[in-house]
Amino acid sequence: MTPSTHSEPITELGAAALAAEIASGRLTSVEATRACIERCKQQSRLNALVQPCFDAALRDAQRADAAVAAGEPLGLLHGVPVTVKDCFAMRGTEVTLGIPGFSNGPAETDSPLVTRLRGAGAVLLGKTNVPQGMLLHECNNPVFGRTLHPTDPSRSPGGSTGGEASIVASGGSPLGLGSDLGGSIRQPVHACGVAGFKPTPRRLSLVGSSRAIPGMRAMRISPGPIARHVDDLELAMRVLVDHTDSPRQPDEEAAPWRDPSTIDVSELRIAYWTDDSFLPTAPAVRRAVEEAAAALRDAGADVRKITPPDDREMMRVYVGLLSADGMRSLARLVRGGEVDPQIRRQLRIGGLARWARVMLGGALRLLGRRLLPDLLHWSGARSADDYWRLCCDADRYREAFWPLAAEQFDGRPVDAILLPPFGVTAMPHGRALDVLPASSHCFYANLVDAPAGVVPWTTVRDDEQEFPRAPWGLAQWAARAATSGSAGLPVGVQVMAPAWRDDTALAVMKRLEQLRSTPD
C-alpha cells in the first residue's frame, strides 16, 4: 500500500472520514493510528488516556491494512482509532472506576460493546479517565489523578466521561465510548466543545461494564459515543446496535434503529427552554439555546419556548432515586482506600440521618437559603417502602412529561426539545459538587428515558463572563466562579426526543451542526 499524501491533518478527520480514507487506500490505518498515538503523547499533560495500548493498537492497525490490501470485507470503522471509558471491560486493561483496589486485574475478554467496535474494525488505543465512582461532573481520582480541560488546564473537562471528551477534543482520538446516568456524556462534551449522544436506555447493553451503584434499576445508565461530528455519532450507533459480532444481550430491547437522514427537521415541532427554577443559566449558555432555536425556526421548524414540565418534581424524584441508598454502595467500594475530597463530601452528605436533614434544612431556610434545604429534604437514605413509592412517582413523571410539553404546544405532540446541556461552561477544578444544581438540565432525559445529545454551538463572548445575580448560596458562588474568566470556552446545545426516537434527536443535532454559526 502506498503511503498517504493526505493534505488535511489526520487528527482533524472524523471517524467516518477516516474509515472512508482507509477503505479507499488513500490513508493507512497504521498512519492514522500513529498520528493519534503521537497526538496522545503530545497531549499527555491532559491525563485523559490513562491506560494506553499503543503497541497492541499498531499491531491491529497492521492487520487492518493487510485486510484492505487483500480486498477483504471491511467493517464500518475499519482501521479507525477509538478510545473507551474506564468502566467498560476491554481485554488487557483494567476497570478501576478510579477506586484503589477495585480492579481485579487486566480483563481477559471484551464487553459486548467493545466486541462490536472491534468487529467493525476499530483499533483500540486504550482507556480514558473517570471521576472516582463515576458520580461527579469532574475527572479526578486517586488511581490516575486529575484530567485537564483540553484548552484551559485550570478547568475540568467534566465527567464522568471527561477523559473521553478531553482526548477527542484534543485530537487524540476521533471516537470514544462513554456512558451517561446524569449527563456523564452530555456535560463533558459541552465543556470540551465536541459532540456526544446518550441513546434511549436499554438500546445498548451494560453487560461487561461496571458502576458504583449496580443495584439501582429505577434509572438506567446509557452507553453512548463521543466524537467531533454528528455523522460519527450516528456511525458509531450503527456499529453498537449491530449484533453480528456480539449477540443481543438480555438487557437490550429489540428496538429497530431508524435512519436519522429520513427525518425532515423542517416538519418537526420543537420546544425549548433556557432556564428552570433551580439555578440561573450562564449568559452564553442561554444565548446558545436561543440562537439554535431561532436557526431551526428560520429553517422551517415549528419552534416554541415552553416552561420545563414540573421541574421541581423532576429534581425531587431524580435526586431521591440516585441517593436512596444513602451513598452506601459507593461508601463500600471506597472503604479503606484514598478518597477524593469531593467524593468524601458526597458520602458525608449522603449519610446524613433524616432528622439531621430536617434540622439543617430548617436552619438554612432561616438564613434565606432555598435550594439547598430542598435538596437535603429530597435526598438521602430511604426505606424500601419509600423507595418503591418514589419509583411509582418516577413512572408517573415519565408518563406526564411529554403530554405536559404538548399542552404548551396547542396540544400537539412535541417531536424534540432544545435545552441547555448544563447551567455553566467548563468548571474550575474542585467545583463540580458545589454547582450540582446546574446539572438539572441533564437529569430530564435520564429520568424520562429519553435519547439526548449535545452538539457544539458557540463560545463564550467577552461580555458574557458575569453570572446572573441570584439569592446568595454555594451553588451561585461556584457558578459565578465558573463564569468568570470563561471567554472563549465552548458552549453546546442539548437536544432531547421521546423514547426510542433516537433518529429524531440525531437528525436535529445534525441540522444544528449544519446551521451552526461561526464562534465569536
From TrEMBL:
The first-level EC class reads hydrolase
UniProt xrefs under PANTHER family: FATTY ACID AMIDE HYDROLASE
Per UniProt, residues of the Amidase domain are 31-505
GO molecular-function terms, A-Z: amidase activity; aryl-acylamidase activity; fatty acid amide hydrolase activity
Tell me which EC number(s) this protein carries: 3.5.1.13
* Example GO biological process: fatty acid catabolic process
- Species assigned in the record: Pirellulimonas nuda
The protein, known as: Acylamidase
Q: Which Pfam families does the protein's record reference?
A: Amidase
Top-level taxon in the UniProt lineage:
Bacteria
User: What keywords are annotated for this sequence in UniProt?
Assistant: Hydrolase
Give the start-end ranges of region Disordered.
Answer: 146-171
